TrEMBL record:
CDD domains named among the record's database cross-references: SufS_like (cd06453)
Lineage of the organism: Bacteria, Bacillati, Bacillota, Tissierellia, Tissierellales
Annotated family: Belongs to the class-V pyridoxal-phosphate-dependent aminotransferase family. Csd subfamily.
Entries under InterPro entries matching the protein: Aminotrans_V_dom, Aminotrans_V_PyrdxlP_BS, Cys_dSase_SufS, Cysteine_dSase
Protein's name according to its UniProt entry: Cysteine desulfurase
Iron-sulfur listed as a keyword: no
Cofactor(s) of this protein: pyridoxal 5'-phosphate
Pfam family, one: Aminotran_5
Entry annotated with the keyword rRNA processing: no
Domain Aminotransferase class V: start-end pairs: 27-398
Length: 414
């Protein structure tokens, strides 16, 4: 595991952790929303604009070719990082949300018909719910859910019961952004293949930043994730798709750079990836995501996962002992680094605002998972989520100041 010295060095790489706004060190526990960025990734944006900026795939001058080279190298890097077979299976988009919408529009709306079924879980983020509701509205397909038990795990019998030959799409999160559950994706994909003709989509938004992923081994048809949750800039995300599926489905957006030939009355399209990257692309973002992958690889995903697990276990143990708090996160030791909880007698926004006065940033609200919160019997929760730079000392400080929240609100004292 990382030593204290290594974590100290890692922390020194992140400018935001060292600026001490209001003279106080910031404890950043909102990594599930977005991570802070290390200096080398911030500098990478400048490097791109200073010497590599052009419009790729167009033109014969140096910068047009340079930007094509760095953009396509970034694609290659993502391919290796997620274990795809070909770099053409990596589509650069804005974020995981856009990636899921692409599949919903290009596959869902065209391939599904009345009576077909889409299966998702109650753990899903709105990005993996709303696009499927829209597909159902347009096609007459039916949206079904698998639910979790009291330990936030999906009993496998839920899939056995709900995957049938009517199921055409199964779309499941790799990790819950609220309760930390890691569904057994490999087992679910295998069962889906054996019992239906459905495609399988993995929402990797909270999985790819924390766990080594191999799309070929998992055998998923599509996977979506965002760069900004893994130390990269905002505005860049990825849709992975199996080549044969990508080239079968219709483009989501059309226009420049995704065409083969354009006639006055019709157009032929290129294959993936260009087929899905209409218009001028986010080269800066793709290059930045590649830099973030280098950053993660520098420390090693296994080591990052081990350390984040250690922090999560530590925080879970501490919060579970407080009788004025209800913890929602799964008690399984194999969980994503998110701890969601509620004070018995305080609204999450009050808790988060008071903690903010001590320099502690947590998330409060529904975390874009309203159906899950309703299922849990609360409309909202507090969430502390961890990244590579967090420490047990920060967790101690955070837990200590939960008492101050009670004191400020007049619901308890030290
Ligand atoms: C599980 C999950 N899926 C999808 C998303 C959407 O990610 P983005 O907002 O980057 O598109 C999030 C964001 O928090 C998430 O936690």
């Amino acid at each position: 595991m990382f030593t204290k010295e290594e974590i100290k060095n890692i922390r020194s790489e992140f400018p935001y952790l060292n600026i001490k706004p209001n003279g106080k060190e910031i404890i950043y526990f909102d990594n599930g929303a977005t991570t802070q960025k290390p200096r080398e990734i911030i500098d990478n944006i400048v490097k791109y604009y200073e010497g590599e900026n052009g419009n790729p795939h167009r033109g014969a001058h140096y910068l047009a070719m340079k930007s094509t080279e760095v953009y396509e190298n970034a694609r290659e890097k993502v391919k290796d990082f997620i274990g795809a077979e070909k770099s053409s299976e990596v589509i650069f988009l804005r974020n995981a949300t856009e990636a899921l919408n692409l599949v919903a529009y290009s596959y869902g709306r065209n391939e599904l018909k009345e009576g077909d079924e889409i299966l998702i879980s109650i753990l899903e983020h709105h990005s993996n719910i709303v696009p499927w509701q829209e597909v159902c509205k347009k096609t007459g397909a039916v949206l079904k859910y698998v639910y979790v038990d009291e330990n936030m795990q999906i009993p496998f019998s839920e899939f056995e019961e709900k995957i049938t030959e009517k199921t055409k799409i199964v779309s499941i999160t790799g990790a819950s952004n609220v309760v930390g559950t890691y569904p057994d994706i490999e087992k679910i994909v295998k069962y889906t293949r054996e019992n239906s003709n459905a495609i399988f989509i993995l929402d990797g938004a909270q999985y790819v930043p924390h766990k080594k992923v191999n799309v070929k081994e998992l055998d998923v048809d599509f996977m979506a994730f965002s760069g900004h949750k893994m130390y990269s800039a905002m505005g860049i995300g990825v849709l992975y798709g199996k080549e044969k599926l990508l080239n079968k489905i219709e483009p989501f957006l059309s226009g420049g750079d995704m065409i083969e030939y354009v006639y006055e009355d019709h157009t032929t399209f290129l294959d993936a990836p260009q087929r899905f990257e209409a218009g001028t692309v986010n080269v800066e973002g793709a290059v930045n995501l590649a830099a973030a992958i280098d950053y993660i690889n520098k420390y090693g995903m296994e080591k990052i996962e081990e350390y984040e697990k250690y922090l999560t276990d530590y925080c879970y143990e501490k919060l579970s002992k407080l009788d004025y708090i209800k913890v929602y996160t799964t008690n399984s030791k194999d969980r994503a680094p998110v701890i969601s909880f509620n004070f018995n007698e305080a609204h999450p926004h009050d808790v988060a605002s008071i903690l903010d006065t001590f320099g502690i940033a947590i998330r409060s609200g529904h975390h874009c998972a309203q159906p899950l919160h309703r299922f849990l019997g609360s409309n909202f929760s507090c969430r502390a989520s961890f990244g590579i730079y967090n420490t047990v000392e920060e967790i101690d400080y955070f837990v200590e100041h939960l008492e101050d929240v009670r004191e400020v609100l007049g619901i308890g004292s030290k």
